[in-house]
Amino acid sequence: MKVEEIKSLFQGQKEHTLTHRYVTNSHIVHLLDDLKKHVDVEVIGTSVLNDSIWGLKIGTGNKRILMWSQMHGNESTTTKAIFDLLNTFVNVSSLNYILEACTLYIIPILNPDGAKVYTRINANEVDLNRDAQLLSQPESLVLKQAFEAFKPHFCYNLHGQRTIFSAGKTNKPATVSFLAPAQDKDCTITANRKVAMEVIGVMNGALQQLIPNQIGVYDDAFNLNCVGDTFQSKNVPTILFEAGHFHNDYEREHTREYIYISLLSSLDYIAKHNVDGSNYKSYLDIPENEKCFLDIIIRNVNLGTETEETIADVGVLYQEKLVDSKVEFIPKIESIGNLDGFFGHKELNANRLQVLGADGQSLKTGDENVFVIMKNEKISLLLG
User: What pLDDT, on the 0 to 100 scale, is given for residue 308?
Assistant: First the structure.
């Protein structure tokens, strides 16, 4: 499929009831009711706090793809893209060839308790993506059981990443990142990983047409406690998706589209090809993620006095906090010093003037400031 065709499908099939960053079971339950006419919908387990975990099955093909999203409750962009994708399959008959070749099994929110309070961890304060071996949590067992029952040929592990990541050591944000996880401690490029790499190469090729040089890959250090590494070690090609930052897109609506494009382009490819890993090498050209970004950098700040200058840069990161069922972005001083090796999604230049906190005091690491004071003028650090 051509990228422009996929973009057009997204505009027509975007699920408009899902917006911003806060997505929970209560936001998707009505969508599941509507989908039941076309999609097999079932409760496949419950969370620590006894909330439902749903599994959705669509398609009749022999190639089986298992997807799960919001393993980390505060990573909702991929969940939005999943429902955009489901709308597309339900409403666009020209894509029936994908469903005739493939069967998809989707867990839209694996960690509903974490989603409800907008945290990475579950209600027992466990990171489910480090529980693949212990299987200490009910949500981990639900995923394991789905994996064993469905017997997938591909696994899509859908996540979100922070604004700090760059695509290589550049001033380009890693808007989407991928990984074909290792399946042994030597990070061997096995035949199984090559299959995952080939599919990632296809998605990267599609995205490069739209956001060139804004795609990265994660370090493939092996950790069998991670779900992706575990499933890869079971010889099922597994792909980690990370929805990252696009310029000024803190609501992750642009990134949502790029995840949708990734999903649909990969499924189109799998449906049409026998993916054997022979075309894996383009994956190796994707730059590795680096942590080169801060949300705001104020350059050339005088931390001394008007008569005795101490010049440094001030780096700000937004803290995501759930306030009245909406995610707010609270500016927090992350670092003070020489930030020449970093880029700001927004940059200000103090031109060697003093910059003070909202309380009129000197800036300190760890302070939350919705604005700073420069030349007796309040400068907002909030979004917008």
Answer: 83
